[in-house]
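Researcher: Re-running this chain for the archive, since the previous output was lost when a drive failed. Same request as before.
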Amino acid sequence: MSIHYPLQQPVNVAPGAIATLTIPTGQSQTLTGILLALSGTTFTKAHIDKIKVKIGPRLIWDLTIDQLNKINNYKGNADGAGFLYLDFVERDQAVFPVKEIGGIDMLAAMAIGNVIVEITLLATAVAPKIDATGFFEPSQGNPFVLKYLNYPASTAVAGKFTLPLSFRGALLKRTWHFYTGTNFTGTANGNLSRTEVKKNGAVIYDQTCLAARFIQVQNKKTPQAQAFIVDYIVDNNHDAQQTTISKSAGGAQVFDSFEINAYLTAADSIQSVVEAIDVINNL
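Model: Regenerated structure tokens:
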């Protein structure tokens, strides 16, 4: 079990406000998770709108509460109305310490700034209270962190739609494509019916919604409503993470070219969340 202890009390915890939790960097530890305990007269996860995580000025997480819930539930994490867990590691990977790459090394982050968690509360919360606990491991001395970055796109027509995503050398774990159109059923694709991924012109992923969900359930994941999840490590094999930088023939490093095509049966709005391991100052 990791080291865990109470963190500083979040400030500005009020209905309709953005509560801020600050975790000072500089200690010889790696932050692997944050548990937010929610209490008050009327305050649960349902009264949160958004979650952002920053290191100094650099945004590394940008999620709505619906997106974060679906991410946690897909991975089989605990789900409780009075708690919210921010997980920076890959719990179900078997290889240690690889499974904890993505945790924030508090020494490596010190030059950028403190860890800051911003929690946007809805106005319907009544006398909200947040208590935070940090989960830590000894310093791993690596500069890489887990990122969830949001890229919106929309199309007014059905058909093949290329999503505007660029990865700049980050190590891809998953891309989450949240859509607003017709949801899937047990026997039918959703409005985002198929996703194709090309890397440097070659297809590396091409699955229908039905097939992707079958493979996910086969690997003990839980498909989420109105979400197409391109999961490169669906079987928890860390070696399947997608690199996005290569050496050219001359030996120089160049970014790989990616083309991610969403196939839609009707017009839709898509929020693509890139889940990646990356240095703090890149994406």
